[in-house]
Amino acid sequence: MIVVNTVKRIYARGLGMQGKNTVLITREYGPKIRLGAVLTSAEIEPDDPFSGDLCGDCKRCIRTCPTKALKPREIAIKRCVVYALKGPELTDVYPDVRTLTEKFITRPTARSLIECTRCLDVCPIGRETHGRLPVHA
Ligand code: SF4
Ligand code: SF4
Q: Residue 131 above 70 pLDDT?
């Protein structure tokens, strides 16, 4: 089995940086990306590591989190709605977070749900590329 820390490599190879919402953000798309990987033996010249700070003074993701799970580049996972959704049997979810969970998810049908993505939706990085997405700020 091969284990590759993709995110670490992505930071090192210049694709983006860790935003204050803790996820990878890129200049073009902000946090609204999906990662994939290709294993190859090809010799590929890596880009330089990412430099600069895309977040600057922005704190939108931290302010918008309904359960106060975020600090800059740090998440208290047991306060995150997405973690709470992993199952009602999880006993380490904060009671106030459990109470709020239904409020911050969407149920398009009786058997489906859309997780909380507020800390991604509010990010202004890449807004020009995907301006049609909803904003909860
Ligand atoms: S997914 Fe929702 S609850 Fe979790 S950190 Fe982001 S905004 Fe907060
Ligand atoms: S919302 Fe602002 S602080 Fe949060 S990741 Fe995006 S740019 Fe950074």
A: no
What is the domain partition of the chain in residue ranges? 6-121
**What is the Cβ-side half-sphere exposure of residue 93, based on CA atoms within 13 angstroms?**
19
Ligand 1 neighbours, Cβ below 6 Å, are 65-67, 69-70, 75, 80-82, 116, 118-119
Question: Which ligand sits nearest to residue 20's alpha carbon?
Answer: 2
Among protein residues, the one with the nearest Cα to ligand 2's atom 8 is 55
The continuous run of DSSP H or E covering 25 comes out as strand 24-25
pLDDT surpasses 50 at 3: yes
Which pTM was predicted? 0.84
In this predicted model, what pLDDT tens digit does every residue of 97-116 receive, in sequence order?
Answer: 999 988 999 999 989 989 99
Cα 1 to ligand 2 centre (Å) = 35
Among candidate residues 112, 119, 114, the one with its CA nearest the CA of residue 136: 119
According to the model, what pLDDT value does residue 137 have? 45
Among protein residues, the one with the nearest Cα to ligand 2's atom 1 is 123
**List of E strands, 68-121:** 70-71, 74-75
Element (H, E) at 17: strand 17-18
